[in-house]
Write a structure and sequence with these properties.
The protein is of the alpha/beta class and about 350 residues long. It has twelve helices and 15 strands.
């Protein structure tokens, strides 16, 4: 394609009008109009104040679009504003940005890819210099990401086709840490409790948990992977039955995909007369306030929000300054285990 080949200038250059393009390429105006809007949907062209700009990656310094987007403001797209993990990380990011003299704009798409595209385009017109993106789960806009003219860092999810820098938590090692801890505590049967709409094959915390157990001689198969929707009483009845039966013969541990699932599981097990942590140990994930409010308090995995926020901003700051994207460059942040009373050992 001529645009990506640089025939119309570097990314961020001003492009000719639809009418001029129609005359230059000898095509009907309506055909040129449709082409422009198709290229705009793929983020190869961007329209701002009745002018068109070439966009096929981060816009270069001193191009017309670069001069529009050089304010000391970062923007963040979040897939869901009520997500406790995202809210905590954003709070740390905002504090760190303020210490460096930057402002922050936040907008949410509520997990809708098309809304996310519109939000990302609006950041350009607002003049922000870089974007922190908690992307949606879809791959349908990978090409849009790759052509996006502002420096952008993904947080929490890698989009392979986009190949942009990403800040990730090392969930695989975290899963191994949980398995090792529960083995040391003397538990003998092990389960992982996930949610139905989250793929087991891509669940790094489950994969690490399973690998450590299997490498230490524990029989952990697909039958040890349970699923429950937080709103489904039927799901939880089935899970409680399985875990309760397992605990009759040997002490059993359940590693839950998040703290809310863990809290509900504990509540249901206690109602059935199951002793926690003696018969069943439960570990959550996220270190939400429910962990300390629950009885017993919940052993969980906590995020290093300070390190995540600082690495995110320092990386984005570097990209803004250098205008070069190191593709496939991922930074992994290690989480840590917080031991509480839902497992045998307790430091609280």
């Amino acid at each position: 394609m001529k645009i990506k080949a640089g025939e119309y200038g570097p990314s961020g250059s001003k492009f000719i009008s639809i009418r001029d393009f129609s005359e230059r390429e000898n095509v009907a105006y309506v055909t040129a109009y449709r082409l422009f809007h198709e290229l705009e949907s793929r983020c190869l062209l961007y329209r701002l104040r009745n002018a068109w700009y070439v966009t096929y990656g981060v816009c270069e310094k001193n191009t017309p679009l670069y001069r529009v987007t050089d304010r000391k403001i970062f923007a963040a797209h979040v897939k869901e504003i009520n997500n406790a993990y995202i809210a905590s990380l954003l709070s740390n990011i905002k504090s760190f940005l303020q210490s460096k003299g930057y402002g922050l704009i936040v907008s949410t798409s509520e997990n809708d890819a098309e809304s996310e595209k519109e939000i990302l385009k609006s950041f350009i017109s607002l003049g922000v210099c870089g974007v922190i993106n908690f992307p949606t789960s879809t791959k349908s806009i990978s090409a849009f990401y790759a052509n996006y003219p502002l420096p952008m860092v993904f947080v929490g999810r890698q989009i392979p086709d986009a190949a942009l820098p990403t800040i990730l938590t090392n969930n695989f090692e975290t899963g191994k840490t949980v398995a090792q801890y529960l083995l040391e505590e003397g538990y003998e049967n092990f389960y992982f409790l996930g949610i139905p709409y989250f793929s087991d094959n891509s669940n790094e915390r489950l994969l690490g948990y399973r690998e450590f157990l299997q490498s230490n001689g524990v029989n952990f198969s697909n039958e040890n992977i349970l699923h429950a929707d937080l709103k489904s009483e039927i799901d939880f009845r089935a899970v409680v039955h399985t875990v309760k039966q397992s605990a009759v013969s040997r002490p059993t541990a359940v590693f839950c995909i998040n703290d809310l699932i863990a809290a509900k599981l504990i509540r249901k097990l206690k109602k059935e007369g199951v002793a926690i942590p003696e018969s069943v140990g439960v570990v959550g994930y996220d270190d939400l306030p429910v962990c300390t409010e629950n009885d017993p308090t919940i052993t969980t995995i906590a995020y290093n929000f300070r390190e995540m926020s600082e690495k995110t901003i320092l990386l984005l700051d570097k990209l803004v300054a250098e205008r070069k994207i190191e593709t496939h460059s991922n930074s992994y942040i290690f989480n840590y285990l917080v031991k509480r009373k839902s497992t045998k050992k307790s430091e609280n």
